[in-house]
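Database export, one record per block. Field names are fixed; values are copied verbatim from the stored entry.
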Amino acid sequence: MHKSRNSQGAPETRGRTIHWASLYDPFTWLVSLGREPTVREMTLDLAGIVPGDKVLDVGCGTGTLTIAAKTRAGASGEVHGIDAAPEMVEVARRKAAQTGVAVDFQVGLIEDIPFPDDKFDLVLSSLMLHHLPEDLKHRGFVEIRRVLKPSGRFLAVDLELSAHHLFAGLATLFSSQGMVQSSLKSLEPMMEEAGFTAVESGRTQFKVISFLKGTAG
């Protein structure tokens, strides 16, 4: 399905699109208190990437996690990243070129993933679900299920901040109100409706970061 584009060249979506790509990495470092590399490795450990995996990172941002996923998938693996913001994709492509890592980045939406059915072993989502209204979350889960192979895995990690958390105001300023209101556990029934099994969620070793995962039924 062809998506219309706005004046910034991004596909039209009701999800929140971040265009400040030059500030994204410093913001992530700030919110993580400088522990972004540790959070990234934790995410990859939870994902269980093995050599040869075909991986899609939905809402890849500036591509740091996507590039790291390719390192784990190895030369026999295939890794792609999509983001709604052309600015993010441009930065991600520059990073991949500078590091010499073969990762494909392109503009795309979670509700209209530009890949065929049953392509991926794993789909990742990092710090992105809170940008979506509820109906787009559901559509996104259906699309992720579509592009996963049978028994393929989905893993999302996201911030769960109480309204009184130290970074809640900052997160809302740079992101969206949903960041301080969302609960990944509340999305478990929605994932099951989209065709996932073995759905579970929980806190990680980082108190403000939770995970949500499931297997394509």
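Remark 1: The first strand starts at residue 54 and ends at 58.
Remark 2: The radius of gyration is 16 Å.
End of record.
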